[in-house]
Specification:
two-stranded antiparallel ribbon
Amino acid sequence: MHKGSLVEVGDYVKSEQAIGRSGKTGYTDMEHLHFNVLKPNNSGMQSTQIDFEEGYRGIDLKKGDWVEK
């Protein structure tokens, strides 16, 4: 969903908190959600790897993979 973010840079999020709405924007025919996790460092914010509670490691996910709770 265009402008579907429910959080902003710098917000803290909790487990099961909605962070955004998925949609079919761009060149796709299926709903999806792009997100990035940032953590503070000396020069601002830095992208960091994530692990999902269900055991999925973000770094292992590839195009076409599904993550569902």
